[in-house]
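Saturday, quiet lab. Running sequence design on the structure tokens for the scaffold JK sent over.
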């Protein structure tokens, strides 16, 4: 199964100069735990709810005055749309992450792939295989 067949395509992003409060609001509204971070339309990082808690709240930073760029992870692990789901699973495991930013051949953001996307697909394939027997 290819990533493009199971990834989420309606992806919210946050600008690196947004405040952490704005970021948290976007996360809550979209019901997600992580967002790609952009600057002038280009992918520059990723931020998770855990980043906000561990890197900002635990350090007692003011969330309304602290910019996303100060807390985000700048080294984004990405995968291509045409990657196989098994390869994506191995990539997540190797980097100990729960989500991958999906890009096209030009490196442009096209989606997000989460562990739950992969698990749901695996469960559906297992049920289908059981019914075939």
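Result came back. Writing it out in full:
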């Amino acid at each position: 199964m290819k990533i493009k067949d199971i990834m989420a395509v309606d992806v919210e992003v946050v600008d690196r100069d947004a405040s952490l409060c704005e970021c948290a609001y976007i996360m809550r509204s979209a019901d997600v735990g992580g967002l790609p971070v952009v600057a002038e339309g280009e992918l520059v990082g990723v931020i998770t709810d855990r980043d906000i808690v561990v890197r900002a709240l635990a350090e007692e930073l003011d969330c309304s005055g602290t910019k996303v760029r100060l807390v985000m992870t700048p080294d984004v692990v990405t995968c291509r749309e045409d990657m196989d789901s098994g390869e994506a699973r191995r990539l997540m495991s190797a980097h100990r992450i729960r989500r991958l930013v999906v890009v096209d051949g030009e490196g442009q953001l096209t989606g997000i792939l989460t562990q739950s996307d992969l698990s749901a697909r695996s469960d559906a394939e297992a049920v289908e295989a059981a019914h075939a027997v």
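Notes for JK: The chain has one domain: 3-132. The longest strand covers residues 42-48. Ask whether to fix the surface positions before the next round.
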